[in-house]
Amino acid sequence: MKRVRFRDPAGSIRTGVLEDDGTPPRIRFGNQDYEFRSEDIDILPPCEPSKIVCIGRNYADHAAEMGSDVPDRPLLFLKPPNTVASHGDVVTLPAGKERIDHEAELGVVIGEQCRHVEEADAMDVVAGFTCVNDLSNRDDQRQEQNWVRGKAFDGAAPIGPVLATPDEVPDDAAVRSRVNGDLKQDGARSQLIFTVPELVAEITTYLTLEPGDVIATGTPEGVGPLADGDHVEIEVEGVGTLEHSVRLP
Ligand code: MG
Q: Pairing state of beta strands 52-56 and 214-216?
């Protein structure tokens, strides 16, 4: 099942089920039915994270393209709630930077408050999966330890368009990005160095995850810079495609 949060024509926030086997895709909410992407509704992020826990260098080919080694334990950093952006948004990027990259990622949405979760139980606390673009301001990321300017600027985490339950997303699900229609990244969940259960166990050793929190599991090779007006698509097989554009002020 694919769940969509959206704002209906009356302005109320609803959670419906995406029926994407027809054209156009529809959102079912009770006995009402809305066209996905119609002008009447706004697609919202499928969850409201208190934090996004991001994983650095979790694909060997991406670590190599960044000139880095694969870490011996998951490399963790945070994106706070101000970074969340929606499917269909225009994200305003920080001004005056040489290089702000797209990073296509499988997002794990947490379903219940949890701490000290064992790997074997990790999928019990996972509500499902979504797409994340871990927008990355390399100019500042290279200069700072904690990546606040580099990774936590407003709108730096477009999320969506749906929350797909775990049964929808294959173990080798493709993780892709396109910019203006050109394929840039084409990886797979099966290439993750640290798996989803390993990440849940490691993160909850140190901190409590809340319902709606997101783990952004890292990006495959092919990251690259965005320019004013670019249209970005982040696809995770089984979830769908998150679309947004960017502008430079
Ligand atoms: Mg990333």
A: parallel
Give the distance from CA 109 to its chain's centroid: 9
Residues in the chain: 249
Q: What pLDDT digit, counting tens, does each position of 80-128 carry?
A: 999 999 999 999 999 999 999 999 999 999 999 999 999 999 999 999 9
Domain spans of the chain?
1-43, 45-247
CA-to-CA distance for 62 and 187, rounded, in angstroms? 10
Distance 10 CA to ligand 1 centre (A): 36
Q: What is the Å distance from ligand 1's center to 39 Cα?
A: 31
- Calculate how far, in angstroms, residue 177's C-alpha sits from the geometric centre of ligand 1: 13
**Residue 42 CA to ligand 1 centre (angstroms):** 26
**CA 7 to ligand 1 center in whole angstroms:** 29
- Output the average pLDDT for the chain: 97
CB 174 within 8 A of CB 75: no
Residue 111 Cα, ligand 1 centroid: separation in angstroms? 22
How far does the centroid of ligand 1 lie from the alpha carbon of residue 2, in Å?
A: 24
Q: How far is the CA of 220 from the centre of ligand 1 (A)?
A: 9
Other CB atoms within 10 A of residue 240 CB: 23
The helix/strand/coil state of 166 is helix
Asked if the model's pLDDT at residue 21 lies above 90, the reply is no
Topology of 45-247 in CATH?
Fumarylacetoacetate hydrolase; domain 2 (3.90.850)
From CA 197, how far away is CA 174, in angstroms rounded?
Answer: 18
